[in-house]
Amino acid sequence: MDLGIKGKRAIVCASSKGLGRGCAMSLAREGCEVVINSRNASELEATAADIRKATGAKVIAVAADVTSEEGRAKLLAACPEPDILVTNAGGPPPGDFHDWGEKEWNSALNNNMITPIMLIKAVIDPMIARKFGRIVNITSRSVRTPLSHLGLSNGARAGLTGFVAGLSRQVAKHNVIINNLLPGPFATDRQMSGVKREAEKAGVSVEDHLKKKHAEVPVGRFGTAEEFGDACAYLCSKQAEFIVGHNLLMDGGMFAVTV
User: Fold this and answer.
1) 3-state secondary structure of 46
2) Which of 155, 167, 195, 207 has its CA 20 to 30 A from that of 4?
3) DSSP alpha helices (H): ranges in 203-253?
4) Share of the chain above pLDDT 70, in %
């Protein structure tokens, strides 16, 4: 299927590795010019080289902290009027809500709610003027199925989800389509580090604990960055115009609901 986005300009935040990288790779394969972003310059340049080699696409690497005003300005200077925006930032740490003070909450809200909203605000009017725009926010399955130890994420990402629910329906008539992608367990560095910590705490081998975690997923495995990226690319396609304000949960079937 031709997704109809060849030549479109895309910004993909936090994309040197993991799910962000998967999204950047898939968009580049569809012929998009991709601006990728990370705080780690050397890691980012290596990813840019990999994407160029694999796809032949134009890739611009912007080393910046997207959760800061200065970082966002640097990223937008490299691509002031993107056709596609994929927001992403590392999630806040797990823990007990008794241990979180105002500092922790402000950080979570800035990184996982305010930052994507500021990026959306910066790019949406030119999208409306061009009558084409696609925005995908990478959030978390905790938006649909809250996890008690991820309270900071539950709260901050739910705030973004509520904002998107309203805005997406205001701008859809201009062919500016906003949706959220909610990852469950994916085989990313962060997920695998968590598996390792859990295994050490339980006093079992990482291999055995990983088998247990895989067994909890109906499809019997963790997801891959490649399939996540392809889902993101579809939500950015011309064909996705009728999908508005949705929260696409990608968790291998773990959240069992009928609606």
Assistant:
1) helix
2) 167
3) 206-215, 225-235
4) 100
pLDDT, position 259: 61
Token reading at 245: 């304000």
d(CA 179, CA 231): 11
pLDDT tops 80 at residue 47: yes
Instruction: Return the minimum-mean-pLDDT range out of 26-30, 134-138, 191-195.
Output: 191-195
How many angstroms separate the CA atoms of 240 and 68, rounded?
A: 31
CA pair distance 65, 16, nearest whole angstrom: 12
Measure the CA–CA gap between 181 and 19, rounded to whole angstroms: 10
Domain map (residue ranges) of the chain: 9-186+224-250, 187-222
Give the confidence band of 249 by pLDDT, cuts at 50, 70, 90.
very high
pLDDT at res. 142:
87
Q: Taking the CB of residue 257, how many other CB atoms lie within 10 A of it?
A: 7
Residue 147's nearest CA partner among 94, 202, 108, 222 is: 94
Instruction: For domain 9-186+224-250, give the CATH superfamily.
Output: NAD(P)-binding Rossmann-like Domain (3.40.50.720)
How far is C-alpha 52 from the chain's CA centre?
21
User: Is pLDDT at 147 greater than 90 in this prediction?
Assistant: no
pLDDT at 2 over 90: yes
Burial of residue 34, with CB atoms counted within 10 A of its CB: 0-12 exposed, 13-18 middle, 19 or more buried: buried
Secondary structure letter of residue 253 according to DSSP = T
